[in-house]
Each structure stands twice: as structure tokens, then as C-alpha cells.
Write a structure and sequence with these properties.
heterodimer, A: mainly alpha, flat, B: alpha/beta, six-stranded parallel sheet, 61% helix
Chain lengths: 100, 464
């Protein structure tokens, strides 16, 4: 019997939870705020789905309901991607070591 | 682009995202980590364009909307003051949640674009995945909006509770599960829309009973939810990058919630089921007898600290509210000129989100190697001459160690009272968020400085 591809995706998912568990425990507590803003930014990779939705069957009518939801999702995710990475960068730039 | 090739690139993006989080293990590697994250995002977006392969008029619109959103995001990122980070993060969570809902709706309306079957005959697994993604996304969205309003002060931070709240939540939760089952059986569009609507409602109901002081847990929890929503959509789209990211973000938020709960010695369910403020108000008002308090002024404080050999600063949310971090840095600079050794002690739940105080101190140019976590510094209080408590309260209360009756008993606290003298900057003797009196106020070695945190610190700078 062939293995359902779903099982492969589930395996990736569960292994990633473990990777996340160990990686996040190693994050220094002083960087927990940047951690939240950067996880925010990367979870906006959901923009991938938004792009597919926006371009679906776009040759005939590019503003069908499903496309519109895609475009809206693109705006939301883009705010998050740019905002998230930039604000993280801004914060990380502030962390300095003692001047010797 | 072939499906196998694009899947490989999505995997690379996922790995880059893991490296982005890995970089945060120390401030030196963190900036590089952030670039890994950006690279992962760019790869994902380009690969998606190439694999859809549709560069018609729609593509132009996608770019335009991408730029509009990006510009808004960039403006927010540059303008936002560091004290407003908790609201910003809550706001960003709501966007991820809503984007997940929109993508799920779009997939439900046009499943053929996502290879999920056709309208009225969507694959069973996809239906479950997209409805879960939409439901968690909707809860994240409305929950984050409430958290945002509370943090911004637009909505009162006091917990809103009513009778039967938990039962209603339970019923709504079960209804969502039943509707998902019904959706799978009938493919009914109405049940899909109802799931989304009820989930919006659940998000609101879930967050309104949680009080202001529990916000660090709420934000971390919503962070986790936004991850699980992304993972749900990732399964629907069969996209590895999204699945990996969703799992990372989901576990990251869960760990942060755990750390925050531990910092308050409370169980996760205890926080979710309603705040301290709601249950313990009766306890707080009983202890109202007058006890002697020593109070002083800026000159006294300056004198004490100037003649000390070591000072530990204990900042809390009050410092953020008063925007006192820059004045504080000036004070520390003046002390250092006098040869005083200064360090900072941060409690895990100081502030309104994990790591909030660290960012504010970093903004005020405090080197991060002078800032210590509770476990690292707690033994040093015994050898320190002056502890300067600014804007913190409950996290210094010795009652947590001595009185089993106290609602905060067992919560890890900073051993501030062990230092030779304690300077406590506070506007009045009012209790903190836990609604209990701080025993520290009445200790012999405590000198209360009744003033606004920023004003008092500035005055101390002047008299130093």
C-alpha cells in the first residue's frame, strides 16, 4: 500500500514542532520581544497562499470574489512581512555590548 | 517551475526560518538571523510567482498590493515607539489571523486553483484543514484585536466576566467542531461561513476576561495561535514552508506562554479562565491598616546611591508608562562616574510582553551585558548596597516567599529586600495588579520615593 502524502506533511509538521521547541528554548530571554516580532514576520509566509488565491484563473476576470480575498490577504501579509522584519531589525540594532 | 523544484525551494525557506530563530540565541548572531528570515521570505515569494507562472494583469495588481502593504508596514515599523511594542505585536498577530481566514475563504470558493477538488466536492482532508485554519485564524484575529484595544488603553484592562462565560465558550467550541463535521459531510457553504463567524466571537470571548497584568501570557498565546493557523493553511496548500513556519511559530508562542505562566506561578488554565484582578479583589482590600512607611526625596536617594559600591536597578511596567528609561540611563551614567557598580535585574513578567524591559533598556543604550535575568542576579541582592525599584511592584513582594495565604505565594520574586537599602519609586502606596499590599513598603531598609518614575529619576540625576 502506498503512503498518503499527507503523512509526509504531518511528519514534517511534527518534526518542526520539535525543532521549534529546542530552538526557542535556546533563545536568550532578553531577545524574547524580537523573537515575537520575527515569528510574526515569518508566519506571514502565508502570503504564498494569498498570491495563489489572487492569481487563480486570473486570465478571464481578475476580480472574482476569491481573487479579492487573495488581494486583501496580500496587503495584510505584506504589512506584516515588512513591518515585522523591519521592526525586528530596528530592535536588534539597539542591543549593544559594553564599550571597552 | 516544476512542483518538485518549488517544493525543494519551500523547504530551503523553511530551513532559513529555523536559522532566523536560531540566531536569536545571542544578540551578536541575531542580526544575521534576521537576514536569514528575510532571505527565506524572498525565496518563498519568488518561487510562488514562478510556480503559478501567471504574469498577466493580475500579477501587476499583486505587486501593487504587495507594495501598498509593504509601505504601510515599513512606516509603522519606523514610527512605532519601543514602549508600544506589545500593541504592535498584538496588531500584527491580528493581521496574520485575518490573512489566514481570507486565504481559507478563497480556497473554499475556488478549490480548483489550489488543487483541492471542485466547488461542492472538495477533498475531505482539505476541508478539515482549511476550516481549522480559518477557525484558528479568526480566533487569532478577534482575540488580538481585543488584546490590542486593552494594551492601547482604548478598552479597560480590567477583566470582563459574566456568569456562564466558560460554559458559553465550551458550547461555542463544540459547535465549531460539529459544524466542521457537518461541513465535511455536506460541503455546505453556510456551515463554512458560520464556522468563521462563531470563531470571531470565540476570540473576543476568550480574551475579554483576561486582565491587563496577564497580557504577557495573552500575547504569547496569540502568537502561538497565529502559528497554528498558518500551519493549517500550510496543510491545505500542501506547502512545506508554511507547515514548518507554522510549527515553529506555534511552539515558540507556546513556550513563551509557559515561561510567562511560570514567572507568575500560575497554570495556563488559571490565566485563561480569568485574571487575578477578578478573583482576588476581596483579599486586597482587607489589609488596609496603617503601617509606618519611611519616605524620602531625590537628595536622599542620590546620597545613598552615590555612597554605595553596588546598585541593582529593578525596572517594571511603570518605567515604560513613565518613559523613564532614558532618564534612568543618565542616572546610571552619573553613578558609574562615581565608581558605583550598576546592574539591572529583570523579572520574566516585567512589562506587558516577554522581553519588554530588555528592549526598552536597549533603546536607552544600556549595554545588554549589564542586564540580568532573575536566576542570574537574585543571589547578588544580598551583597548589594542599594536596590532601585522603578515601576515594578508585585515581582518584588517578599510575601510571595513567606505567606502561603497570599495569591502570589510561590511566584518567583526578586530578593530586593536582602539588599542593604531599597529605594522604591512609586506614586502612592496602592497595591499592584495582583491587588495585594507589598510588604516591602514597610520594611526598615526601604525608603519610598513618592513621585512619577521619570520625574524622580531626573531629580536624582540633578542632585548627583
Amino acid at each position: 500500500m502506498e503512503i498518503d502524502p499527507f503523512i509526509f506533511r504531518l511528519s514534517i509538521f511534527i518534526l518542526s514542532i520539535f525543532v521549534g521547541y529546542y530552538v526557542v528554548w535556546s533563545v536568550t530571554p532578553s531577545l524574547h520581544t524580537p523573537l515575537m516580532s520575527v515569528t510574526n514576520a515569518i508566519s506571514s509566509v502565508i502570503i504564498v497562499g494569498a498570491i495563489i488565491a489572487a492569481l487563480a484563473g486570473a486570465s478571464e476576470n481578475i476580480f472574482e470574489t476569491s481573487n479579492i480575498f487573495g488581494f486583501l490577504a496580500i496587503i495584510l501579509a505584506a504589512v506584516n512581512i515588512f513591518g515585522g522584519f523591519l521592526v525586528t531589525q530596528r530592535m536588534l540594532q539597539m542591543y549593544k555590548k559594553k564599550k571597552k | 517551475m516544476s512542483a518538485n523544484l518549488s517544493a525543494s525551494f519551500y523547504l530551503i525557506s523553511g530551513i532559513l526560518f529555523i536559522l532566523a530563530l536560531r540566531g536569536l540565541s545571542s544578540p551578536e548572531t541575531s542580526r544575521q538571523g534576521n537576514y536569514f528570515g528575510i532571505a527565506g521570505m524572498v525565496i518563498s515569494i519568488i518561487v510562488t510567482f514562478l510556480s503559478v507562472g501567471n504574469f498577466g494583469p493580475g500579477f501587476i495588481y499583486v505587486l501593487i498590493f504587495l507594495l501598498i502593504g509593504g509601505t504601510i508596514g515599513a512606516i509603522i515599523a519606523f514610527r512605532i515607539p519601543m514602549t508600544a511594542m506589545p500593541e504592535l505585536v498584538a496588531g500584527f498577530h491580528s493581521l496574520v489571523g485575518l490573512a489566514a481566514v481570507f486565504v481559507a475563504i478563497s480556497a473554499f470558493l475556488k478549490p480548483e486553483a489550489f488543487n483541492l477538488g471542485v466547488v461542492g466536492n472538495i477533498k475531505l482532508a482539505s476541508l478539515i484543514e482549511m476550516s481549522l485554519g480559518a477557525a484558528i485564524g479568526a480566533i487569532t484575529f478577534s482575540g488580538s484585536i481585543i488584546a490590542f484595544l486593552k494594551l492601547r488603553g482604548i478598552m479597560s484592562g480590567a477583566p470582563i466576566t459574566f456568569k456562564g462565560q466558560h460554559i458559553i465558550n465550551l458550547i461555542l467550541g463544540l459547535t465549531i467542531i460539529l459544524l466542521i463535521y457537518y461541513l465535511c459531510v455536506s460541503q455546505s457553504a453556510n456551515s463554512f461561513w458560520t464556522i468563521v463567524l462563531i470563531s470571531f466571537l470565540v476570540g473576543v470571548l476568550l480574551i475579554i476576561p483576561i486582565g491587563g497584568a496577564d497580557m504577557p501570557v495573552v500575547i504569547s498565546m496569540l502568537n502561538s495561535y497565529s502559528g497554528w493557523a498558518a500551519a493549517g493553511i500550510g496543510f491545505t496548500l500542501e506547502n512545506t514552508a508554511l507547515i514548518i513556519t507554522g510549527a515553529l511559530v506555534g511552539s515558540s508562542g507556546a513556550i513563551l506562554s509557559y515561561i510567562m505562566c511560570k514567572g507568575m506561578n500560575r497554570s495556563f488554565f488559571n490565566v485563561i479562565l480569568g485574571g487575578w484582578g477578578a478573583t482576588d479583589q476581596t483579599n486586597g482590600s482587607v489589609v488596609k491598616e496603617q503601617k509606618p512607611v519611611k519616605s524620602g526625596n531625590a537628595d536622599d536617594a542620590a546620597f545613598l546611591m552615590k555612597n554605595a559600591s553596588s546598585v541593582i536597578i529593578v525596572p517594571g511596567y511603570g518605567m515604560a508608562v513613565a518613559q523613564a528609561q532614558h532618564a534612568l540611563r543618565e542616572m546610571v551614567d552619573a553613578l558609574k562616574k562615581n565608581g558605583v557598580k550598576v546592574s539591572y535585574a529583570i523579572h520574566p513578567v516585567a512589562g506587558r510582553m516577554p522581553g519588554h524591559m530588555n528592549v526598552l533598556l536597549a533603546e536607552a543604550n544600556v549595554p545588554y551585558d549589564e542586564v540580568f535575568e532573575l536566576e542570574e542576579i537574585n543571589n547578588d541582592f544580598a551583597n548589594c548596597d542599594v536596590a532601585y525599584v522603578i515601576g515594578a511592584n508585585d515581582v518584588t513582594n517578599p510575601v510571595a516567599k513567606s505567606d502561603p495565604q497570599s495569591p502570589i505565594y510561590g511566584m518567583p520574586v526578586l530578593d530586593v529586600e536582602k539588599s542593604k537599602s531599597v529605594l522604591f519609586v512609586k506614586r502612592s502606596l496602592s497595591p499592584g495588579y495582583a491587588g495585594i499590599d507589598n510588604d516591602l513598603f514597610y520594611r526598615d531598609n526601604t525608603l519610598m520615593l513618592f513621585a512619577d518614575a521619570k520625574k524622580m529619576t531626573e531629580e536624582i540625576v540633578k542632585s548627583l
